[in-house]
Design goal:
Elements: H1 15-36, H2 38-45, E1 47-48, H3 49-53, H4 59-62, H5 70-86, H6 88-92, H7 96-114, E2 120-121, H8 125-136, H9 143-161, H10 166-172, H11 178-200
Helix pairs in contact: 1-5, 5-8, 7-8, 7-11, 8-9, 8-11, 9-11
GO molecular function: serine-type endopeptidase activity
Protein name: Rhomboid family GlyGly-CTERM serine protease
Keywords: Hydrolase, Membrane, Protease, Signal, Transmembrane, Transmembrane helix
């Protein structure tokens, strides 16, 4: 009688999760380090319409890295860790920095060109909404992820069409700019459509 052994089952690699955790933690450390700079750092990097008109274009991007205070920064930090837990593939992919640049700069440019009433803005939440949509959309066939995606989109729509909760604004210490959340979702949709178009292109 000959014996036989079955090939060991391959365990799913944990590298993407580790890479996502590392990337999310590094991003969180950057936000907290800039928050420690307090008013001088915030005033140098925030979205300021008059300063941008004077040529300080970096503020279109850097505004997303500074916050009103520690509560604001920590709230977005929790959101980053939650997003990395639900959609690690977004943080682990090689295009993450490009996605961050696209969302951050895109929100800044669209805000500057389309919302002249917004004079100042800080916070990562607009980019974070975009990351949630990009990460959850490919997983929409999973019931939990579909619910999370609906919650993100519904909350962004609620804030834009109705009003942010006063308790949430009191928590972060300022007015919530719901337009930034809407723009993050809009740009995430554009990113997903572009990726789908690239995948459909014939390969040589």
């Amino acid at each position: 009688m000959t014996g036989a052994t079955t090939a060991p089952q391959q365990q799913p690699s944990s590298r993407p999760n580790r890479a996502a955790s590392l990337c999310a933690c590094l991003l969180l450390l950057v936000l907290l380090a800039l928050a420690a700079g307090a008013d001088p750092v915030r005033e140098a990097l925030r979205y300021d319409r008059q300063a941008i008109a004077a040529g300080q274009w970096w503020r279109l991007l850097t505004a997303h890295l500074v916050h009103l205070g520690w509560a604001h920064a920590l709230l977005n930090g929790i959101g980053i860790l939650l997003c990395a837990g639900l959609a690690p593939a977004v943080f682990a992919c090689k295009k993450f920095l490009l996605l961050m640049l696209f969302l951050g700069t895109g929100i800044g440019v669209l805000m500057y060109s389309g919302y002249p009433d917004i004079g100042r803005y800080v916070g990562f939440s607009g980019v974070l909404y975009g990351l949630f949509v990009v990460g959850l959309w490919p997983q929409r066939h999973d019931a939990l992820m579909r619910c999370a995606l609906i919650l993100v989109l519904g909350w962004a729509g609620w804030q834009l069409l109705l009003a942010p909760l006063p308790s949430e604004e009191q928590m972060i210490g300022g007015r919530i700019v719901a337009e930034a959340h809407f723009l993050g979702v809009l740009l995430a949709g554009a990113w997903l459509m572009a990726l789908a178009g690239i995948r459909r292109m014939p390969r040589p």
